Amino acid sequence: MPTKIDLKELRVAITGGTSGLGLALVRLLVGRGARVVFVARTVRAVKQIANETGAVGIVGDVGHKNDIYPIATQITGHLGGLDALINNASALGPTPLALLADTECEELEQALRVNLLGPFRLTKALFGALAASARGGRGAAVVNISSDAAVNAYSGWGAYGASKAALRHLTAIWAKEAEAEGVAFLSIDPGDMDTPLHALAVPDADPTTLLRPEEAAAEIVRSLLAALPSQAARPVAVHP
Is 0.85 surpassed by the pTM of this model? Predict the structure, then answer.
């Protein structure tokens, strides 16, 4: 008899929510009863996943500065506030992967816009809503999806690794600065997963050796709940 936590009061926003880990997070959280808004760039995919899951879909690109405040406004408008933001959307930079000497400046800029500046801008735009949730006793958390490429130097992964390393350190600094506001910041490396992004980076990888996005999503949700005192204190509902 599996045990599931009822998350019907939890308000979550997820970027990159139409494929891979982001989609797995949307499905898991909606399945647990959370109120979920997800963001992605493609209109057709956003509509499809919204219809499939019942989550609210927003069309936008976190790598575009002018999209940030419209995205943030829609998130808080649909949810009436925000308890958790999961910055999951990612960009590799050059594809196929390239050595730094062969990486165009524009390709590095793309990785930085999506993997670093996007999460920074969106978190900044939503920080007031998160702090209000924390003050109200609900707890609040930001989860930034990292990678082992943020700490290990892999040939060909320069743009991606550098941007994720910067995001990882940004998360650590923001965690210190946000303590007084009660907003938790987590940097989580989900490991190598069988996702479209990984397939784009390593086309020859054997999918059977990779983690399923659903497994990684479950671990991330467990870490998120541990960072939310109001959720940790909730009773566990057992479903057959």
Answer: yes
